[in-house]
Design goal:
Length: about 80
């Protein structure tokens, strides 16, 4: 199986959307009587959470790449001029 980049923000957004779909289904089935105003903050909050997770994972990935490049440049026997 080919490897791919992990995207935790998309996973969080997907889980939030599945939760909203379950809430709508429960409301439609009459199992749960939730006002429509409940779903709007959950939707917006879920998108905000997904964006935050994406930003944090991006910053972590960039920091790791910078640290790796710095370690390779300062390694003994490197051909980079100092």
């Amino acid at each position: 199986m080919p490897r791919h980049e992990i995207r935790p923000g998309r996973a969080v957004a997907g889980l939030v959307m599945l939760t909203l779909a379950g809430g709508y289904a429960a409301d439609a089935a009459g199992v749960w009587n939730a006002p429509w105003t409940f779903f709007v903050p959950v939707f917006v909050g879920g998108l905000w959470l997904a964006a935050t997770v994406t930003w944090v994972s991006y910053r972590t990935r960039r920091r790791r790449q910078t640290r790796k490049a710095s370690a390779e440049a300062s390694a003994p026997g490197s051909t980079r001029m100092r």
